[in-house]
């Protein structure tokens, strides 16, 4: 770092994104992207918007908010589109957390939560998962802190039922509960409907996974009008034009093609079920993932060895060095053909080692 870097950030440990290789051709199963291209309607609308790039994007995201509200059964002022769901998560830390309103989240979860807390100087508690990587709901009941839970969780893929989410929200009426639903479309019931019942619930989602738009950077939040108004205060105090014109237009096109999204999700779920079945035959153990990835370990080879050997054979997966999960690898679900190649390659690795 330079000698000019602020003291307040010198201890900051940044989030580390998954590897994005630029040289060798890999089967890329490390960053939970969709293996399918965006909806043709999304591409068509983005191309139209490109002709108007001399103009600023609509800061109110009017057509996108209208399309989101229609899909979610919400009002237009109960949704907020952002530059990826990372942005609305950061907005939530900024808007609702401070020294008197600390944050709490699992110790094994999306790696950006502690980063957002640190960069905003917010005290936080990391609540340990059980040994089987499940969340103990009792740990969150009535704790009097702002709560951030990814459901399904990452990198485990394990989901809480809606009844448990409601229990957490209802027991913390004076604190905001944020449910991060980045992977909800792959097998979990959304908590969006509960935002009508609880004014302390914010649900966030993304276009990066099920809607094949990771490169567009588009996310959104759903909550009561007052929560969204608070988040808009943060937005208009940092970046009013946070969603660019092409992304906004492609988002509308995507939402007008839900059949395409649902079909892709079903293909990914089918490929996930295939991978789970075949990897179990090879001796792998996995969590019960409801996401577009699986979280797996093998008794004979370490997580790091499997990651390294797969990489040498042209397949990228995500390995984490944190002690509690270092024996596991997170494997994105690709096409059925990619999963078949993965299974075949892992069988070869186990045979060779």
Verbal overview:
This protein is of the alpha/beta class. It folds into two domains: 125 residues, Aspartate Aminotransferase, domain 1 (Alpha-Beta Complex); 218 residues, Type I PLP-dependent aspartate aminotransferase-like (Major domain) (Aspartate Aminotransferase, domain 2, 3-Layer(aba) Sandwich). The chain is built from ten helices and 13 strands. It has a seven-stranded mixed sheet, with helices on both faces. Strands 9-10-13-12 form a four-stranded antiparallel sheet. Helix 3 packs across helix 4. The N and C termini lie far apart (42 Å).
Helicity, in percent?
Answer: 25-40%
- By CATH's scheme, which homologous superfamily of the largest domain applies? Type I PLP-dependent aspartate aminotransferase-like (Major domain)
Distance separating the two termini: 42 Å
Low-pLDDT stretches: none
Q: What is the strand arrangement across the widest sheet?
A: 2-8-7-6-5-3-4
H/E element sequence = EHHEHEHEEHEEEHHHEEHEEEH
Helix vs. strand class: alpha/beta
Rg to the nearest angstrom?
20 Å
Alpha plus pi helix count: 10
How would you characterize the largest beta sheet? 7 strands, mixed
| Number of beta strands | 13
* Mean residue pLDDT: 96
Oligomer: single chain
**What does the overall shape look like?**
globular
How many domains make up the coordinates? 2
């Amino acid at each position: 770092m330079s000698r000019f870097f602020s003291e307040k950030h010198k201890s900051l440990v940044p989030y580390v994104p998954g590897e994005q290789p630029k040289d060798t051709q890999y089967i890329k199963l490390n960053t939970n992207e969709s293996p399918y291209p965006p909806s043709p309607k999304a591409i068509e609308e983005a191309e139209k918007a490109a002709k108007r790039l001399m103009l600023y994007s609509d800061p109110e995201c009017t057509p996108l908010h209208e399309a989101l509200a229609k899909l979610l059964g919400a009002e237009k002022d109960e949704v907020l589109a952002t530059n990826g769901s990372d942005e609305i998560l950061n907005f939530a830390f900024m808007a609702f957390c401070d020294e008197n309103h600390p944050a709490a989240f699992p110790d094994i979860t999306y790696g950006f939560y502690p980063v957002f807390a640190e960069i905003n100087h917010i005290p936080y508690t990391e609540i340990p998962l059980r040994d089987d990587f499940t969340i103990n709901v009792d740990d969150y009941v009535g704790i009097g802190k702002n709560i951030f839970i990814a459901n399904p969780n990452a990198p485990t893929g394990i989901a809480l039922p809606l009844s448990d989410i409601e229990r957490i929200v209802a027991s913390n009426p004076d604190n905001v509960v944020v449910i991060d639903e980045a992977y909800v479309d792959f097998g979990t019931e959304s908590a969006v409907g509960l935002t009508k019942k609880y004014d302390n619930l914010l649900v966030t989602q993304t276009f990066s996974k099920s809607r094949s738009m990771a490169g567009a950077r588009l996310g959104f939040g759903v909550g009561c009008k007052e929560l969204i108004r608070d988040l808009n205060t943060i937005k208009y105090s940092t970046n009013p034009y946070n969603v660019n014109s092409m992304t906004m237009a492609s988002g509308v096109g995507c939402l007008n093609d839900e059949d395409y999204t649902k079909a892709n999700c079903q293909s990914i779920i089918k490929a996930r079920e295939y991978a789970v079945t075949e990897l179990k035959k090879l001796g792998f153990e996995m969590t019960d993932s409801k996401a577009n990835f699986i979280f797996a370990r093998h008794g004979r080879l370490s997580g790091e060895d499997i990651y390294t050997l797969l990489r040498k054979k042209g397949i990228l997966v995500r390995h984490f060095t944190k002690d509690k999960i270092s024996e596991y690898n997170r494997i994105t679900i690709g096409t059925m053909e990619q999963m078949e190649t993965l299974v075949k390659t892992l069988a070869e690795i186990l045979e060779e080692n």
